Structure formats: C-alpha cells, structure tokens
C-alpha cells in the first residue's frame, strides 16, 4: 500500500453523510486523470512485486511463537533511507521500500524502484527479496523473525501476541483479537470500526473445519466464549457449527500475499492485461495455496482469499439479500474483496459481451456521468460498479481537495475495492503510467519460491503481449474457479475452467506448440473446459498447449545467455512441478507437518507446541538450513 494520508478520520455516522460528495469528486478526479493520460504512449514495461511478512517472536525456552507488534520501531529505521532520499538521483539508488500494513505485526517491502523490461531484470528479484529479508532481520531482536507466511496460525488464540499491552479499544469488538494487533495509524482502526458500523454487525468469517479422525462431529468450537463480556451485543451468534469462526477484520487483512504490478505502454494495453490476467488469478491462488490453519485449527481450505473477503464485508443485511431493500440502494452479490466483476475490453478485439455474464450491479447515474464525460461503456460500467460502495475512511481535512491535482477521493473507493486484478490509472501529474496489479498469490516460505512465481507471471505477461494470446472465459466461470481454488489440494484434485485455445488469428504460431483445438469455436461455451492445473500449466498431450510451453517458446525466441536461461528454468521448474504434483504446495506441506506431529491428536487442534515447531521448521527452510525434497526437489 502507498504512503498514508493523515488527518481526523470521521465516525461512520458522519462519514456516510459525505459519501456522495466523495463519490462525485472521485469521479471528477478520474475523469481529469483519464483525459490527461488517455493518450500517453510508450510508457516502458516497468513492474514490481510486493512481499509481506509476519514478524514472529520465538520463545525457545517454553516453545512458544507469538506475533510481535513492534514493527513501527523497525519501520522507523527501515524507512530512513527513503525519507532521506530527497533527490531523484538518491531515489534511483534506493534498494527497497518499506511500508506498514494492516497488522501491527506485518511489514511490506518492495524493490526500491520498479524493475525494467530487460530479461536479466528477472534475475534481480530473488537477490532483492533476500536483501529485504536481511534488512528486516537486522531490525529484529534475536528472538524475532520476519516470516513470509500467509497467516499466523494461532492469530486470535489466547497468548498469541507478544509486545505492547495497550488497552483494548473497541474498533473490532472481537471475542478473539485485541485491537493492539491493528496498525495504530488512524486509518486502520477507523476502517475496522466503520466496516462494522456500516454492516450493522461484526464481520463474520466461517471457514470449514477439517474433520480429522478425532474431531468431534458436529464440531462446536469449545474455545468460543458464549458471551462477549465487554460488549454483550457483539456475541458469537454468527458462529457456524463445523466451522472455524472469526469475527474481526484482522483475521483477513492480517494475511500476507505476493502481489505484482505492471506498467503498460498505454491505457489500452493496461485493459488488455487486466482482462487476460484475471482468468489466471484463480489458478495462481490454487497453485500458491499456503493457508490451511486459522485461529488454532486445521481448516478444510488451503487459501486465505475468502477469509479476507468475509473479513471486510461491509454489506448490510439488505445488500446481502437478507432483508428487502429499504435504506440501501443495491443488492450486492460480492464483498468489496473478491474476484473481478467485469472485463474492460481492449483494441485486441477479443472481448465478447457474453464474457461479462455476471449481472453487474452499478450506479446508473455515475455510469451516465462517465459516458457523458467521454468514457466508453465497459470502463464506465467497471467504475460505476466500484462506486456502488461507500467510502469507509474519510479524513475531515481532506474533504475538499483540488480535483485536478488530487486523486484522494477516487483512490478512497478504488483502493477499498480489493479485487483479484486491479486496473490502476496514473496518479495525477506523475511520470507513472497505466498499471495493472495481480493480487491473488499467497506468499511462500522462501525468496526462491516467491521469485519463481513472480518470474512466471512476468513471463506469462510478456508471452501474452507478444503472441496476442487470449485467456477470456466468462466471469462467472472465474468465480467458480476462485471457490474451487480453496479446496484442500485443489491444485491436484480439482479442475478449473480455462480457455481451450489461447491462440488468436494474430498469433504467429510458428515456434509455438501446436494447438489441438481449432482456432474458432461455435459458441462461447465451446471455448472453455474444465482442466487440471497440471494441464493448464504444463499442457496436455494432444490437448491444451500449456502456459509453460508457451513461455518456453517465448524464451526461445529471445537471445538469452545460458546462465540467465538456466536460472529462469529453475523458477519455471518449480512452478511446473508444483502444478503436476511432483512437489507440494506450502499448504499441503503445512497440513502434512501438523498431521504428522507427534503431539497432534487428530482433532484439528493446533497446539502452541505444534505451532512453535511448525514455525521453527519454516524458519529453517527459509534460511536454507532445511530443504524438504517434497517442496523443492531437483529445482
Ligand atoms: P499498491 O497499490 O499495492 O499500494 P504501489 O503503488 O505501492 O501499490 O506499488 C506497488 C508495486 O508497484 C511495487 O511492486 C512497485 O515496485 C511497483 N511499481 C512502482 N512504480 C511502478 C511503475 N511505474 N510501474 C510498474 N510498477 C511500479
Ligand atoms: Mg500490501
Ligand atoms: Mg499492492
């Protein structure tokens, strides 16, 4: 996330009165940006990744691991170089940038400057990730470790927080998670409280429990207090049987991920990237799955995505369809954090209206204004959909800003629509161009794995653009894919909708693997089918060509030195073997570790001891002291 604005945040009761003001000016800001930037051409193919860490505090004497909420002390030092870089020359020298995140136990780091379009830039990722990890470790106490784990397995259990014992203030009203785990910057407690206030109740997250041989059936969680002693009205009535119940935004936004942002050469190319990367996002969620444990239990899911989705779901009962519409204007089928709802289309001419098969909810007045302001139908609908939401955090001092030089109101809505891919207009008056962010991947234990998945996505983007590939499938099929991606071992046991023929008339097929499918299909429904992730990634004998074979053709068409090619192959090998089951996902490995732990009682419970041993082992894997062959063999 970017640097944060400061000011006095408004309580929801007041903020909601300014919602239309923010939306109106947000649209003015977008129109201003759009008209200034729509003709930008030849922006270079810059890109960057974001890595998030949980800072874990180990107690080796009592075999406990807790989260450390000391990151602001660490950030003070980590951000020093950036704050002192007051000239473009100095900024160009920065090696990495540090940002706070939602959790007071989380760090986010990106490269100091985006990477460029040279193929050798791919090899800068892993050393830069290593450097970031080293710098973070330097700011840790000897017992603390910044870990690239998607979530902290015991978050929300008693005795899981190490550090400041600030008084509990009631932003989340959680039965499990004290406010002291939230970033204290006004934006975050306000976001937390305003989501709850807007919704009219605490957020309710229910993830299915994994029923092991000794897990009670039905599973009624004995650790859930029957009453909320401090805030009696915020009880556990939303807790579902056979589920792990969580009741605070921090359970979701306390998760870490690996995101990649690309700058396109112009707005049209950004729309193209947005559309074609979206169908890949659910596949990559399954392939990077790393989150089978929540609040001290083994879950029957492998990924974080739906936890975050439910953790920030600010829709009211009316909007969720539980009551007839009276106060609210729309029934809304998804949380603010979810898969994309519509494609944008581009001049590649591959978009068909049938792909936008979701009954899109959008604000007709905003749509009208955008169309009158010169925005085409698909982009206008995308924005008019994002703008059905209310702004959640409004700073009093920033209500009235200059719409030509500020994008605050636009960003207020844009940055709280957390979708699987994000279409990012340039900031006003900046050298930055149109960008697209790929947001679904789970963070992996090691820099090698995180670099591998980053490199894979970057190369896929290059192949997509150079060969004019086509990944379109209907939006609702993509939504199904996201659901399926959560299932344990989805990467091996499930099938996903994917386009059968990704080549187009414009592709120069010479040099690419032979397509098995004819180039044209009779109807949209003939264009896709269910495939395993192995088939999607590695290809199918006599069938789908496979994304890695296409990437390999792309690499063969370039003049790459042996050393670079060799390293890239190691990355692609990891992705390929995770897809075909020769190697495990992080989630499968964690699940197996827990189930084989000598003190595990086959009851789905992650004891503090199991948690400590698990995190200690991951810590050693990350440091390179252990290389479990089931995660990395012969890569
Ligand atoms: P967020 O929307 O997640 O807050 P930021 O704007 O902070 O994103 O950017 C995060 C990512 O974008 C980083 O990986 C960074 O390297 C990359 N990035 C920054 N500038 C550019 C650019 N001009 N083009 C492409 N990527 C960029
Ligand atoms: Mg982040
Ligand atoms: Mg990001």
UniProtKB/TrEMBL annotation:
Transmembrane segments: none annotated. The keyword ATP-binding applies. This is Glutamate--cysteine ligase. InterPro entries: GCS, Gln_synth/guanido_kin_cat_dom. It catalyses: L-cysteine + L-glutamate + ATP = gamma-L-glutamyl-L-cysteine + ADP + phosphate + H(+). The lineage of its organism: Eukaryota, Fungi, Fungi incertae sedis, Zoopagomycota, Kickxellomycotina. Keywords: ATP-binding, Glutathione biosynthesis, Ligase, Nucleotide-binding. PANTHER family: GLUTAMATE CYSTEINE LIGASE, GLUTAMATE--CYSTEINE LIGASE CATALYTIC SUBUNIT.
